[in-house]
Amino acid sequence: MAAFLSPGRSLALGLRISLALTAAVLLMLSAWPSSADAASLEDIKKRGYMIVATEDDYPPFEFVVDGKPMGYDHELLSILRKSAGFEVRQEILPWQGILPGVASGKYDVALSAAVITDERVKSLDFTVPISESTMAYVKRKGDASIKSLKDLSGKTVGVQQGGASFQVLPELEVELKKTGGKLGKVVQYGAFSEAYQDLVNRRLDVVIHNIVSLSTLVSEKPDVFELGERVGRKSYAAWAVQKNNKSLVDFLNTFLAQQKSNGTYKQLQLKWLKITFDDLPNQPLLPGDRQVK
């Protein structure tokens, strides 16, 4: 797997948005357009193809090395293509365009490890989880100033713009206040590769990301990074379709259930995630194991 600093996988956006822009960013995300009805499974079969969107820089789930898509989701996609019964066309793009594109009908499926959140279920329906995606933090190896979650008080934190790591910040702030601490400076990035580089260069103290991605990062760079504690409630990652597209989500759930029962899930999780999740729920759940209403 390619190193975290690979320039070919960076979005190169140079995006550094201050926390003062939080309200504007959330407003933009909650106002995703719904300009076209989603294509049902019957519609997809009639036209002969389905369009899925995947991310370009989200290891170990989805990433590109020397022009070749790789990762957990891409291997599942390869299996889906063999069994779908119709063509599956893939668009590889930066994270920021994937969920809005599905919500607006531009893409049929966000075949990406998207964390199921309260905000996202307003405009999207999710499949059964493909992975746990609880947030955690990573620090520089040997940074003795951070030993537990409470030590993040006043530290500079890196997160992904509009992503689940950004959305968990209010929970972190609540936890820090319990011990008299406070949330420090927050820097948002278009790509985690940029955040990791800034962590190495001491522009950040920690980066928050899902525990799978951080576990993989640490396993690849044990002399550079050190995994910290979980942040916030237990959460899950899943694929997404436009709201109320029941036939398509049922089709995807049937496919995923097959991969779970035949052992493919476990095999691919060991290969790419470096951890297995044998107790994933059989329905999409919100953070804290709450039901989607």
Describe, in plain words, how this protein is organized in 3D.
The chain is α/β, with parallel strands linked by helices and 293 residues long. The protein has 2 domains: 33-132 and 236-278, D-Maltodextrin-Binding Protein, domain 2 (3-Layer(aba) Sandwich); 134-231, D-Maltodextrin-Binding Protein, domain 2 (3-Layer(aba) Sandwich). 32% of the residues lie in helices and 25% in strands. It has 10 helices and 16 strands. The strands form 4 sheets. Strands 1, 5, 6, 7, 8 and 14 form a 6-stranded mixed sheet that branches. Strand 15 (285-286) and strand 16 form a beta hairpin. It is globular and about 60 Å long. 44% of the residues are buried. The model is unreliable at 1-34 (pLDDT under 50).
List the helices and strands and how they pair.
Blueprint: H1 22-30, H2 41-47, E1 49-55, E2 57-58, E3 62-65, E4 68-70, H3 72-83, E5 87-93, H4 98-103, E6 109-115, E7 124-126, E8 131-132, E9 135-140, E10 157-160, H5 164-167, H6 169-178, E11 186-189, H7 192-200, E12 206-210, H8 211-220, E13 225-231, E14 236-242, H9 246-261, H10 264-273, E15 285-286, E16 290-291
Parallel strand pairs: 1-5, 1-6, 10-11, 10-12
Antiparallel strand pairs: 2-3, 3-4, 6-14, 7-14, 8-14, 9-12, 9-13, 15-16
**Envelope shape:** globular
The H-and-E topology, N to C, reads as HHEEEEHEHEEEEEHHEHEHEEHHEE
Amino- and carboxy-terminal Cα gap: 39 Å
Helix proportion range: 25-40%
CATH fold category name of the largest domain: D-Maltodextrin-Binding Protein, domain 2
User: Approximately what portion of the residues adopt beta-strand conformation?
Assistant: 15-25%
CATH class of the largest domain: Alpha Beta
Number of strands: 16
CATH architecture descriptor text of the largest domain: 3-Layer(aba) Sandwich
Low-confidence stretches: 1-34
| Structural class by SSE content | alpha/beta
Q: How many structural domains?
A: 2
Q: Quick check: average pLDDT?
A: 88
Cα Rg: 19 Å
SS element count, helices? 10
Going by CATH, the homologous superfamily of the largest domain would be: Periplasmic binding protein-like II
Specify the biggest β-sheet: 6 strands, mixed
